[in-house]
Amino acid sequence: MNKIIKYIIITAFLFILFLSVGYAESVYVSDLKKITMRSSPGAEHTIIRMLESGSFLKVIEKSEVWSKVRTKDGKEGWALTRFLVSQKPAVVLVNEFIIKNEKLVSKVTTLESENNSLIETNKKLAGVEEKYVELEKESKNFLEIKKKYEETLKKFEAQQEIITTFEDNYKEKVLTWFLIGAGVFVFGVMLGMGAKKNRKSYLR
Fold first, then answer.
1. CATH superfamily of 2-88
2. Are 37 and 79 in contact (CB under 8 A)?
3. Contact, 74 vs 49, CB < 8 A?
4. Domains of the chain: which residue ranges?
């Protein structure tokens, strides 16, 4: 019989312990400046900490009047249940809003800086593109000029060849006419000398 009673007591103790550990409701201190956290439930017990509005707590045990709570740093005590709320109070929401706003402002500043950097990069790229277009135009003009130069050079070389051929032909003709003229001159001289001899013979 004693064993059964002892077993029931142990089971009940473990059940209560399990309930106290498993409960752990998340609550906040309501929109008040500060509330007291005491060593035990009751206004006559020692104040061990002042809890500011918005403080995050874990509820270990809860009744209509007093709740046993644990702070973020692990401190445990008792606070009035009516000052604990499950919804985030205004002070917490305002602080979260301020933090989010600061992050957004910081992000906007970063984005503006990146945008300015991109604008400068785009300007540089536009300048490079403009120079590339100019270079491309100059390259096309150079290629056209080179092509015209090569065509003109070919024409000049062809004309030079024609002129050289004409000069060679002209020199040959001049030499031929010179030889013909010289032959005629020599022939005339010889003919004249022969006529003189004949005339002298006739006179004798």
1. SH3 Domains (2.30.30.40)
2. yes
3. no
4. 2-88
